Please model this.
Amino acid sequence: MSRVPVQVDGRELMLSNLDKVLYPEAGFTKAEVIDYYSRIAPVLLPYIEGRPLTVKRYPNGVEGPFFFEKNAPSRTPEWIRTVTIPVPGSTKDRETIDSPIVENLPGLVYYANLAALELHVPMWRVDGRGRAQDPDTLVFDLDPGPPATIVECCEVALILRDVLKAEGLTARPKTSGSKGMQLYAGWDGRADAATYAKELARLLEKEHRDRIVSVMTRSARPGKVFIDWSQNNPAKTTVAPYSLRARQRPTVSTPLLWEEVEGCERPEDLVFTAADVLERVEEHGDLFGRA
Model:
């Protein structure tokens, strides 16, 4: 195993196997994963700081086995903040986990070196004492049931945008980096977030039965867009803006312009790789921070 010591903002890290290919189809290596997360950090970190982090690790690349990691292992550097979170009913027979909070570049590089390709966070933060706060973000996950694609997701996103606007909420779109997309909106706590999202999804299903479904039953989804309101459950996480995804290519969950949503004609129109996203940030800055 090749190991390279580095200093990142005053923290000593040991990087390993930098030439290992994690995305075989693209020849994208661990070094390139670390480089991407290092360069995207200024716009990514604000969306994960203060939020318990769940990572999806692919030690042998996207074509190999993977696992989710919510609990910080004992070897986690002491300078990475952890918070104790209750997990009642855990399948691992434990009542709590020590979840990492990544708030700086060294922490991001540390996890990138572990082949933590995907970063997932909840819609709530913890305070300085590690106590869970109320949700500050509302999310709708739009999942297309084949033969529907992200093109149909965009049509539903526009409907949802207008409904949220009438409710006084400003929606921000991003791709999932996979098949669908998500809409985020700042949440003011006017109601329970999951209940509110569920009621809105049910209403839109009733008004647009030809294109929208709000139930999780897979047999109801073909050709329609599933509005997954359950991502607002405090126990759920959603892929973070600017996170890589474990697809054949190093695609990214990418913030969008509404003009791009309105003009989407083919699924390929809204597929962005790590290189694409770095160029977009160079040109537009943080699109997710404009609302």
Q: What stands out?
A: The longest strand covers residues 137-144.
